[in-house]
Specification:
With 107 residues, the chain is an all-alpha fold. It is elongated, with a radius of gyration of 27 Å.
Length: 107
């Protein structure tokens, strides 16, 4: 194995790792590992959350959590909404209110 490592300019441990990987998995493809905590919401719940927001975008995080019937913190709901691309910003598509003065310019 040291000759193989020298030939490919890798460490002896790398060659050993690939040997064991070939033996155990039958492939030399890079193995990606899912790290970190698993997501709390299932795919079905994520789709339901998306539909709830599309139906009524004025729902609060607490209301969304209660409609989903899940036990999680509000940040979990917020993070999933963020992953789905939902925002909480006001829409600037509406025309300005012309009937009332909303602010005074004092000067």
């Amino acid at each position: 194995m040291p000759k193989i490592a020298a030939r490919f300019s890798v460490s002896h441990k790398m060659v050993q790792k690939l040997k064991y990987q070939w033996r155990d998995l039958g492939t030399l493809e890079p193995q990606t590992h899912k790290v970190g905590r698993k997501r709390l919401l299932s795919d079905k719940q994520c789709k339901r959350l998306d539909q709830l927001v599309r139906d009524d975008s004025s729902l609060t995080l607490e209301q969304l959590r209660s409609k989903l019937r899940v036990k999680c913190c509000l940040k979990t709901i917020w993070m999933e909404l963020h992953r789905q691309g939902h925002t909480h910003k006001k829409s600037r598509c509406m025309p300005a209110n012309k009937s009332e003065v909303t602010s005074k310019n004092e000067g």
